[in-house]
């Protein structure tokens, strides 16, 4: 797949404390501005560990009106929502303000997986234009994003907004529900959070690597013109 990449804005911090404090201030201001401009801000959230401290800090914001926030998730594991590995549980536990929002739109994993995908597609089909205002995501060491993994057809074009995917450790068929890469990219501003020394290579591969997007899905994120990568390799 031949893709044209934009150069992202990269902000590297010396310590995690400084990074999370400043990143939270930046994102908080962006959300507040969106609420003033549009009334409601739609947030796209990943449940990856590097993102969770941001959610915990945002939950205590003094300027975000959570009643004017809509939450969406990048992906979900096909487990009950009460399962410790449930991504909606992880996000909900980190934020602690889910019941105060205008809407929290998660995959319904109580349904058969294809039905859950169909329902989420119907939810997203009610949106128009740019679906999400701010997206907060991370990239794993293999270049996977959300439920989109290297190899297979997960990052190719799909007619739906959400699809069922299969993680590399699954031998029993699809076990993930994920937005397509095109849906993730339909976000006004994307924030990528990278932490730990091991993720230095992730940053290098995203920006300077030669792997095709089919082998390193995160490279597709750089087809978005408004990406900021916040990183701390401490």
Number of domains: 1
The helix fraction, in percent, is 25-40%
Helices and strands, in order, run as: EHEHEEHEHEEEHEHE
Low-confidence stretches: none
Alpha-carbon Rg, integer: 17 Å
What is the averaged pLDDT score? Answer: 93
Name the strands of the widest sheet in spatial order. 1-10-9-6-2-3-5
Strand content: 15-25%
Question: How would you describe this protein?
Answer:
There is one protein chain. The chain has 234 residues and is an alpha/beta fold. The chain has a 7-stranded parallel β-sheet with strand order 1-10-9-6-2-3-5, with helices on both faces. Strands 4-8-7 form a 3-stranded antiparallel β-sheet. The protein is built from 6 helices and 10 strands; from the N terminus they run βαβαββαβαβββαβαβ.
What does the secondary structure layout of this molecule look like, with pairings?
Layout: E1 9-12, H1 16-38, E2 41-45, H2 52-58, E3 69-73, E4 75-77, H3 87-95, E5 103-105, H4 113-124, E6 132-138, E7 162-165, E8 176-179, H5 181-185, E9 187-195, H6 200-208, E10 227-232
Parallel strand pairs: 1-10, 2-3, 2-6, 3-5, 6-9, 9-10
Antiparallel strand pairs: 4-8, 7-8
Helix pairs in contact: 1-2, 2-3
């Amino acid at each position: 797949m031949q893709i044209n990449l934009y150069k992202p804005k990269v902000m590297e911090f010396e310590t995690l404390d400084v990074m999370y404090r400043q990143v939270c201030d930046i994102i908080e201001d962006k959300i507040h501005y969106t609420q003033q401009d549009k009334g409601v801000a739609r947030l796209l959230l990943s449940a990856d560990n590097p993102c969770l401290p941001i959610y915990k800090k945002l939950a205590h914001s003094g300027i975000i009106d959570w009643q004017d926030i809509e939450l969406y998730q990048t992906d979900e594991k096909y487990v009950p929502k009460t399962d410790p590995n449930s991504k909606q549980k992880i996000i909900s536990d980190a934020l602690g303000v889910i019941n105060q929002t205008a809407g929290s739109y998660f995959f319904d994993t109580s349904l058969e997986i294809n039905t859950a995908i169909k329902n989420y597609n119907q939810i997203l089909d009610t949106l128009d234009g740019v679906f999400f205002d701010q997206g907060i995501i991370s990239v794993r060491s293999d270049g996977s994003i959300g439920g989109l993994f290297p190899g297979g057809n997960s990052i190719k074009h799909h007619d739906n907004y959400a699809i069922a995917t299969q993680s590399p450790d699954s031998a029993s068929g699809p076990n993930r529900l994920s937005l397509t890469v095109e849906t993730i990219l339909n976000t006004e501003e994307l924030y990528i959070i990278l932490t730990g020394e091991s993720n230095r290579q992730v940053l290098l591969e995203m920006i300077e690597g030669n792997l095709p997007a089919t082998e390193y899905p995160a490279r597709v994120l750089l087809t978005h013109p408004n990406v900021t990568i916040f990183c701390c390799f401490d």
